[in-house]
1-deoxy-D-xylulose 5-phosphate reductoisomerase
Amino acid sequence: MRSISIFGATGSIGESTFDLIRRAGGAGAFRTVALTGARNVARLAEMARELRAEVAVVAHEEELPALRAALAGSGVEAAAGAAAIAEAADRPADWVMSAIVGAAGLVPGMRALRHGGTLALANKESLVTAGPLLMSTAEAHGATILPVDSEHSAVFQALTGEDRAAVERVIITASGGPFRDWPLERLAAATVAEAKAHPNWSMGNRISIDSASMFNKALELIETREFFGFEPAMIEVLVHPQSIVHALVGFRDGGVMAHLGPADMRHAIGYALHWPARGDVPVERLDLARLARLSFEAPDELRFPALRLAREVMALRGKAGAAFNAAKEIALDHFMAGEIGFLDMAAVVEATLERLSGEVALGIPAAGLDEVLAMDHLARTRAAECAAHGKKGR
Ligand code: NAD
Ligand code: MG
């Protein structure tokens, strides 16, 4: 029986993963080791009971009594705190879903890789923050990382059976989000509710807003480089409002392999769950005649500076990814709290990178996880300062 763990089980990706596990036989077909969540104790306990998990872990210590109460009599262990989540990743499982949002997903993912199983990686932030470290840890322990981001699953699928040395370019698509057609002046006043309303995908709040600002695509550019190892100049972004073509891979003979699918993350999650086989996944089937039209356009880097910043980060590499992601997380916190405007997010990230480049050699790679976490911490401090400064200036 295959053993599994889900980190971030109560989120959007976590729920979709749970749904697929249940459809594939649930507790009768999988031995569940660990399920984790941040706050939704009742839902986490419900999932842990159904899958008969060994342990359920909640991120915040103060929720432990509530989790214990919700699990009473179930035989499921309860634990709480970031250290307990990392310890849950020390319990070996054959297949681990990494679906915590933000850099908080890095440590559990790194620890899970040490068992040499399969890490289904939705948490793109860990590749942006510590790509080389994550990939070398996987290699050292014989672990497999399977991308769960839809674009990266698409690239992975398009590359299967191909010679990677024959790849000329990789194109990941972006829907353009809710503000694709908005003029720059209007973007400045965009609200949190407007930014959350993604036209095609149903996702967690943070990634939805990142999609509206294109910071999600910026992270994904870096993710493409770190996961597949392609040079930045080979990686392109194409705006494709219908979100049907998720990525394209072009080869030296001029051929292009495209991956198409509905905008439902259960396809990419199901691919990672059943890989290398293809399993039955209950997503809507494409009806291209009904869709009739697929359109593509170049992204506007003036309105979406996140893409330009990602190019700068890729050129620097080193610790720049950790700084970029952390600054972006803080800028997003401030936008969600109503403290800065929509366009200020990119301004805060850019100002943070500028300040940091005067303090540390961003281009020097981190020697280990501690250095990555120190960079993450420093960038959060500087970004909070830049955001506060921006507020005063308005
Ligand atoms: P979400 O906000 O819906 O869920 C996040 C999960 O992480 C929840 O279980 C939450 O309780 C937990 N969590 C949040 N903060 C935590 C912390 N500090 N410590 C421990 N746990 C914490 O997010 P999501 O949309 O499911 O996204 C999860 C990850 O997958 C992100 O990295 C995102 O970029 C990536 N991703 C999501 C989608 C999507 O369609 N939702 C698509 C591609 C990639
Ligand atoms: Mg994606």
Q: What stands out?
A: The pocket of nicotinamide-adenine-dinucleotide (ligand 1) is lined by residues 8-14, 37-39, 59, 85, 99-101, 104, 122-125, 149, 201, 203-204, 206-207, 265 (CB under 6 Å). The chain has a mean pLDDT of 97. The chain has 17 helices and eleven strands.
